[in-house]
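Feature request, filed as a ticket because there's no other form

It would be nice if the structure record came with a short human-readable summary line next to the tokens. Right now we just get the raw output. Example of a typical job, pasted below so the devs can see what we mean:
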Amino acid sequence: MWLAFLTLCGFLFSSSAADEIQEKCYGNSLTLPSKYAPAVYKGQLYFTPSNGGPQRLMLENGKAKDRRLDDLLFNIYIRDLRVEDEGYFSVSHDGIQQFRILTLKVLDCADEVHKHYGDTYTYRVPSKAEFLEFTPLKSSDQLKILWNRSDSSVSSNDPDSPVRAFSNDFYWERRYLTQKHNGYYNFREKHNILISRLHLKVEENEDSLIGKVGRHLRITFPWARDDWIGTFRPESDPDFSMTIKRSRVPKIWFEDRIQVDSDGMDIDPVESSDAGIFEFRDEEGNLAWVLDLKVEDDNLTGIKYAAVAAVILLAVVTCCCCYCKRRRRKRELATPALLNYTTETPAASPAAPPAVHHRGRSQPPTYTTASVPPASTSQTVNSHASNRTTDTSHEPPVGVYNPVSIHLNPSQREMSVPTPPISSGFLTSDAELRFELKGMTSPSSLPLSSESTVCDVYNSDKLNFR
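Raw output as currently delivered:
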């Protein structure tokens, strides 16, 4: 029964010990949950670092086992967090089974400062700061005190970073910066409390230069030093490199065309093979200056510009020709349509044959609808009738009616068709019919008597007009 009780208690304890994740900046403090304070919790508290170090016992039976713990009665504090404090905390009630309660991540919240080789950096010292410590970037274990307010002898040990007093303020100044000054600078007050943290990054200077083939080139250093070491990597062969010193100028690549002094170097005359990267370092190996040398040939440059101008001119001429050709094609396509619209006339339709009269029946003439005039136009055929007796025949005299083709333009308001001369008493064989169309009405040449039973004039509702 006691075994079951202990198992139940362990289960309840493990369920309450949830893993919590906290992120803290470098130099801040961490407070553990109050239920694990020595006045309440009597078990074990362990810490396991993330860097793979050994596990440490920090608290047992209400007593501190690590010097980093503070105020152990009602709370547990870990002050001045460092990178090595990153890891997780676990507890155990029997010293055997452990349960994680908190995971700590230490963040780098320092203010970044970017400078170049040879620059000077000045920083105002906080009023509560008592000392300045420096941790190099390459080796974080080499902590160095650069300044101490109560001990002036510390500042004299580092002449490159003096702290000077201006009025009531103190200013820290780092002169002639190089890559060896890269790292973290921490200003702390009493009891090692962090006030401000700086991350200084010193980078090399970068420049580019253009030389002309066959001319003199002067490369001037941004500083005058005798201990620098140069390295040249030609553009034509990146795998090849050569060292250039003032005391030893190589003759393999430049032959006798290079001269070196404390302020710079001269190349005379410049060749196309001199293009490449020059790197200059101090005697400590700090990279100071990177120069990218480009070499141009005036003759090739002129040819290049001429080729570019020719290509541009050819493109302009091609565009103009295409534009003119397109305009000419549009005009050619538009001209036939204009001619058809202004000069085209409807084709004349063939004349319809005259109506043939037979005894007892008549066959109406056929006409082309395209040449039929509007139905609203009234037409009257005037002819002179001779004295005839009553006859049952409706056949017209031979030679009297001839096919007549009349071209009627809708735009004409009046049209007259010439009529043959009419004799006084009869129609001759040479006589031709004359039609008159004027306006909407046409007067008859001879009135018809109401007593006449035979139509002496050939009338038709449809005439073949073209």
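Something like this underneath would help us a lot:
Residues 205-296 form a domain with the Immunoglobulin-like fold (CATH 2.60.40.10).
The mean pLDDT is 73.
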